[in-house]
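User: Second chain of the day. Same drill as before.
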Amino acid sequence: MKREQSIAQVRWDLALRYRLIETVAWWEGRLTTQHLMQSFGISRQQASKDINTYIAEHAPGNLTYDRRLKGYVPSAAFQPLFIDDSADAYLHLLNQSHERAPHIEGLALAYAHTEVLRVPDRTVRAEVLRPLLKACREGLRLETEYVSLANPLPEVRLIAPHTLVYTGMRWHVRAYCEKNRAYRDFVLSRLRGVPGLLDASSHGRAGDEGWNAEVTLRIEPDPRLSAQQRAIIETDYGMRDGHLAVASRGALVQYVLQRFQIDTTKIEPKAAAQQIVVANLDELARWLYK
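Assistant: Same format as last time:
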């Protein structure tokens, strides 16, 4: 308990350095002062002090100095305090930081053997995002022009946004739409002009039934697969007892399905192409696109 309290009191800038110390040591196997110097623009003396402080005050048994490698290596008793040491967390870090890799010498080896597919995000203008953030933060109504495939000409909409959502491919804002008298999703790249802030709205996040509904998607291997094939799919997706339970908000169910590349309107002729299905579609029906 005392250790948890001491960690919680670490200044955020030091916590970032300690995270790098643990990340490089655990995943790359060798930590030097150069890693901290290049990543944070600090002196060798400061980098050495940070490493020594980390060892002395937080994790005395985590690192040992290897004279042959001329750096610190994780001990057999290494227990991370500032990072999640799971493979998923590290792969996520690789994805997030791939473009910054050339500036971090210690991670260069890992990044040299990593390729991340870059799909450009849809354009979001700063003059659109800033008032949206303020409206979400302060519960304000907002006037904006919006286009859609059904309505390609700009149309004035009065909305009350409450949350920005990233689906993995695009950003949208969840908002109450005064025209439709319902909560809808508005794609940020389809907002035109500069949104104008208005007065306070009575339609906040608390009134959004779809947003507040907690649902679970039950993902399973396509039942047409053989037992051996299903076992492969179960391992691929980290399923337990033959299924994967994915928690979601009702309003986000369709986006979760898109991320899993599941089209509920059709069935692939070949099970090997389908691979996974949603076993509880009936429970999710109200949250699917009509």
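The longest helix spans residues 12-28.

User: Great, on to the next one.
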